Amino acid sequence: MGSLHADNLESISVCSQNPLQPDEFRRQGHMIIDFLADYYRDVEKYPVRSQVEPGYLRKRLPESAPYNSEPIETILQDVQKDIIPGLTHWQSPNYFAYFPSSGSIAGFLGEMLSTGFNVVGFNWMSSPAATELESIVMNWLGKMLKLPESFLFSSDGSGSSGGGVLQGTTCEAILCTLTAARDQMLNKIGRENIGKLVVYASDQTHCALQKAAQIAGINPKNFRAIATSKATNFGLSPNSLLSTILADIESGIWVHVDATYAGSACICPEFRHFIDGVEDADSFSLNAHKWFLTTLDCCCLWVKDPTALVKALPTNPEYLKNKATESKQVIDYKDWQIALSRRFRSMKLWLVLRSYGVANLRNFLRSHVKMAKQFEGLIAKDKRFEIVVPRTFAMVCFRLKPTAIFDQKLGENGQDYIVEDQTNEINQKLLESVNASGRIYMTHAVIGGIYMIRFAIGATLTEERHVNLAWKVVQEHTDAILGPLDGKLN
């Protein structure tokens, strides 16, 4: 292997230091906090969507890692100079794209504690506090959502009834529940019959479900995407689902409810009815890292029958055997997830719940819904635009109307394909123009052949003035494409 020369050894001893030396950790930690505090203070000034070209960073950074250490001051200068221009600023108050990724002081500090302790909580023995805190906060949040008792841990914490677990993302939660559902059925009908298993979903369901089905070994031909329509606001029709299911099978179905983004709002009494009927589901999940002030990643999954997960995802090597596990009195979350190692995610969720309380969390969510109503009202005043699907929570889906683009009334039979295609092209052009400006950022969706612009409110720093600014930007770019309204379409 060779040996290090004496001068190299001397260089290393001079430049290196204890990587966790408390005083140096304190000094550099304060610098990072100051850096991020300034970032949040100034984030509104940055272009929301990154304006760099592909490969920009390769041109700025060296081809090899530095041989000797560099001071944190120099590194932070390069973060400011090279990294920040390449960020799309999800925490900007002018960010309205995809879904919220709301942050908070409590979420950030909880993440710091989790990272600082750096425990690997695969089973109870590896860090009892990590396991028990997770069980507690999942019950807290479950009760805030008024989930049925069948989804919660029993009072003694044994997990003998239902229970909750923090996954990384919805993709992981779906894969875990799908795997449990698969094995639950195969245990009844035999492993050799995996080709008979069928997965049902709305055609608007997140692509993660189809990916999970593929990983779980479900025949792609057995993935049933139930068609939706404008008549049901592109929601899943119970009748359509039932008729499809009855054509395949009559019993043994695992029902998972995925409430990733909007599920958080259901802690508000006025929105709780949106998950009525959840008592008949087998599992339920939402992402606290989207609209619940908890930094990525933190997906909350509740299941009625945790043993279905444990049976499908067990890991029991000799080196993990211990008396606590054998006593059946503890939870080993390693068997509730895909990976073995797991982060101390409950720490940040615990800080969020305690730092803000139910009342403030409800008001935070309500404020965004109120702003969405405000934006919806602004759209209604401009005859060039229409709401494509009704607003329910804090996301508004809108577009330029065909009549605004072609300045003529369409026939009673509705738009023909040519008109609709051109309408879609103009709306796409409008969105690209708005996003290229860097002033705000929105994304799109296509449903029923209609290209629509999605305005999702949820960034922690967003205020009413940002919503008003966003609408002003949309109108300015619309004027540039179509010409000012100026009394048109009376």
UniProtKB/TrEMBL annotation:
Keywords: Decarboxylase, Lyase, Pyridoxal phosphate
Biological process according to GO: amino acid metabolic process; carboxylic acid metabolic process
Gene Ontology CC: cytoplasm
GO molecular-function terms, A-Z: pyridoxal phosphate binding; tyrosine decarboxylase activity
EC assignment: 4.1.1.25
InterPro entries with a match to the protein in the record: Aromatic_deC, PyrdxlP-dep_de-COase, PyrdxlP-dep_Trfase, PyrdxlP-dep_Trfase_major, PyrdxlP-dep_Trfase_small, Pyridoxal-P_BS
Cofactors (names): pyridoxal 5'-phosphate
Signal peptide: none
Pfam family, one: Pyridoxal_deC
Cross-referenced SUPFAM superfamilies: PLP-dependent transferases
Parts of the chain that traverse the membrane: none
Matches recorded under PANTHER family: GROUP II PYRIDOXAL-5-PHOSPHATE DECARBOXYLASE, TYROSINE DECARBOXYLASE
Family assignment from sequence similarity: Belongs to the group II decarboxylase family.
Subunit structure: Homodimer.
Name recorded for this polypeptide: tyrosine decarboxylase
Organism: Macleaya cordata
Lineage: Eukaryota, Viridiplantae, Streptophyta, Embryophyta, Tracheophyta
